[in-house]
Amino acid sequence: MLQTFTLTTATLKEDSDLMNPRNSNTGFTIIELIVVIALLGIIATIVVPNLDNFSPRYKLRSAARTVGQTVAWARSLGGGIGREYVIRYRLEEDTIEILLPPEEDEDPNMDFDSRESLGAETLPNGVEITRIVQPDGSRDDYGVVDLVLDKYGSSGSHIAILKNEDDQSIAVYFQAILGTTDYLAGEEAEFPQW
Question: Could you give the 3-state DSSP secondary structure of residue 37?
Fold first, then answer.
């Protein structure tokens, strides 16, 4: 037995009423869901990076990233431009800064104190630079420490040891020839002896 259906305009009108968005009273549209997810993503990108200041451990990690990125930036400037840059640590002030090379018309042996700075990066409150370790084994525990990053990228290796108020420490290990920055745990980080 074969059934036949007759399609009428009344049937089409009723079906089209079901598809009309104004007739739907419940649920969310895809556009509304996309907007809500986008807003949550924007809020997360604002809130999550600011969590560094809530915990001493995260402050320490943030400070280590700041030191590592500043040193890497100075090295890339020196190698890219082919000039000598200086990294200056002020241990009492817990700052790191990049000193620019002398201009073409200035004395190439200009004193570091006379050079222009790109501005000091201050570490977060509660984090201090406790020591700078040089490749020859010397250690600087106070004062101003200047490290020359030459145009060939072969000088300036050092380890900066950072400590927070909970006595946790991270060592930022910069290897000039390779241009790498490693983050090591502990206060007793040293250069490998070959």
Answer: helix
For residue 177, the domain's CATH number is 3.55.40.10
In 82-128, where does DSSP find H-type helix? none
Report the C-alpha gap between 21 and 14 in whole angstroms.
14
Residue 157 CB neighbours (<10 A): 18
* Tokens found for residue 136: 């020859």
100 and 113 Cβ atoms separated by less than 8 Å: no
Q: Up-side HSE of residue 190: CA atoms within 13 Å toward CB?
A: 8
Total domains in the chain come to 1
- In this structure, is residue 180 part of a structural domain? yes
115-140 confidence digits (pLDDT tens): 888 888 999 888 999 999 998 888 99
